[in-house]
Write a structure and sequence with these properties.
single chain, 52% helix, 6 helices, mainly alpha
């Protein structure tokens, strides 16, 4: 037991760890704009969130869910670069607010009026 000390053995997992693709790329602001154009003009951001990205209704989206959703929407740009551009806090999860602040406010308002 390590009793509060960091040991070399605590870092051994790094020898076999493969970081997710989004950790290895730079944010792609050009493709970010293309992604937002797609969801704003062809679809509605709240619809995309509820029906395509957050299918499990967990209120957050993982990179795998985002990647699958982008493919479902027909987005063929730099998905990992778009993720990095959206996930500015690099939590590894996206919220509706990061996809659509307006959609987030609308959903919160709806929930407040139905309580």
């Amino acid at each position: 037991r390590n009793q509060g000390y960091v040991m070399v053995t605590d870092f051994l997992f790094l020898d076999s760890w493969i970081p997710p693709e989004w950790m290895l790329v730079e944010p792609n602001c050009e493709d970010l704009e293309r992604f937002f154009q797609l969801i704003r003009h062809k679809y509605q951001p709240l619809w995309v969130w509820r029906r395509v990205l957050d299918k499990d209704e967990s209120n957050f989206v993982t990179f795998v869910e985002f990647e699958e959703g982008c493919r479902q929407l027909g987005f063929h740009g730099d998905i990992a670069g778009v993720w990095r551009a959206i996930d500015t806090d690099q939590t590894g999860f996206l919220s509706l607010r990061e996809i659509s602040d307006e959609g987030d406010r609308a959903l919160v308002q709806f929930m407040l009026t139905t309580e």
